[in-house]
Amino acid sequence: MQHPDQKYINALLENDVVILEELYRKFSEKIKWMIIRNNGAETDAADIFQDALLSIYNKAKTGNFTLTCPLEAFLYLVCKNKWLNTLNKRKTQKVTITDTEGFNYIGEDNFKLAEECVLQQERNNLLTEKLAEMGGSCKKILRLSWSGIAMDEVARQLNVTYAYARKKKSECMARLIALVKQSPRFNSLKW
Amino acid sequence: MDESKHFNMEQIESYLSGDMPSEEKLRFEANLESDTKLSELLHIYRTIDAEMHNTEKYSSREADLRNTLQQLNAVYFKSEVPVIQMSSRKQWYRAVMSAAAVFVLMLAGYSLFFKSSSNTSALADRYVKENLLHLSLTMDGAKDSLQQGIAAYNKKAYAQAIQLFEAVYKAHPDNSDAIKYAGITYLVTKAYTKALACFDELAAKKELFSNPGMFLKAVTLLQRDLQGDKEQAEQLLQQVVNEKSDGSKEAARWLKK
Hints:
Chain A is mainly α and 191 residues long.
């Protein structure tokens, strides 16, 4: 069943400044203290909080996201997962944040959804990073093909034949997949 | 070794796009059943296509949201200033040299800004800074919602300002100032998609004697500066000049640069 806090998810989707300000007012303090208590600084908390909201937005924008628990608990889980990943990347002394601020009641589905939000954002970051390493013609054809236009229109815009555009796209995808697979992060991202 | 080269990636593209002839499709699906590597590759290909399609589709909205969150971050999280311990002459010297370096960089940035002011985007940026960061209380100063919105805007309480301007416009859709101020508030908070929607709505009010909607839309596009925005803004500025509508003087000046 949809939780009344779904309004905050809708505010992210609609970039509703008023409701988003309410979200910050109600929830930012708890996240700040969780991070400061666990080897972080306030600037880390700011980055994690913003990144967590963008992760939730990215998951919700595809239309398959129903919040069934309070946002405070869900956001705490997403931020905690992100902060643990950051600490692992920094190779800080092993840190485990054991408390969930009494949020254990939120159910297994929400734990999974929070994890999926973080993973999806990490996959997206890796793809964007690897795409940037590719040549200009590959970037162009891939971006055009992802922009929602049909492949024959992509071919027309690039002034090539449909067959060539499709062949080129699959070659570029092969290159992108190879780059992504070479990354040490690939296996942990649950594709 | 890169196993993706063992398979014909074009077949995967053809299969996913629905272009594959039915006989070939049956063979391909039979291969998928027996070949786990092919099946994994198809899954990754499909995941990347779907995720990047969504990234491209929502890139403009995400940029707007990111800007809003950055503004709110600045309010709700403190940025930390490093504490410099200056206990010796050497550290004093370092601090003075650092300050000098910062000053030189600021000077270089300042001169670069003014050198690039011939660029239309920079002119639009200056226009926003000089003309839109403060709104005038144009009526009798009565404490109606629009005036309260202007007061909130001038205090940079943008969320409150938006709420007030939108409430006024909802109650009085003929109040063009309310939609104009809502658009300006979205513009300065870098919520460009919403600003563009407001200015489109304003520009569509043909009954107005004076209508800055088209000009403000051009300013917004120049500020957003995504692919194609500058070209669209220049067309709008030209239209503003041709129709001698609000902002035509600035538009003519910017187009000449």
